[in-house]
Design a protein that fits this description.
With 103 residues, the protein is mainly alpha-helical. It has helices at 2-6, 12-38, 45-70, 76-96. The mean pLDDT is 87.
Length: 103
């Protein structure tokens, strides 16, 4: 989506198609993410779940406000922000998730 937006291709399918694929991946990823976040301390699963939801909604509100302020009339700002946040999530995963050594 970001590549199409930077290439000034501003048709609805250029936003909807890539966004559908991205959200399909998010839909597959989020249940495992929630389970992984709750697994280490099951005795406080409710608090961990609420913290996870709070952080998710807060970051979405902040980034949504930022995209709204930087909107230039095209899909470029939204597409670049989604791509940047996806890359940031990937980098965070690489840096923060500890790999278990193979037996």
């Amino acid at each position: 989506m970001a590549g199409l937006a930077v290439a000034t291709i501003h048709f609805p399918w250029a936003v909807v198609g890539p966004h559908m694929l991205f959200m399909l991946g998010i839909g597959l990823l989020m249940p495992q993410t929630m389970a992984g976040a709750l697994a280490p301390n099951p005795q406080c699963a409710g608090a961990a779940s609420s913290l996870f939801g709070f952080l998710q909604m807060t970051s979405a509100a902040i980034m949504g406000g930022l995209v709204g302020q930087l909107h230039d009339g095209s899909s470029r700002t939204m597409a670049l922000t989604i791509g940047l946040m996806g890359l940031l999530a990937l980098i965070s995963h690489w840096l923060l998730v500890r790999r278990r050594p193979e037996a």
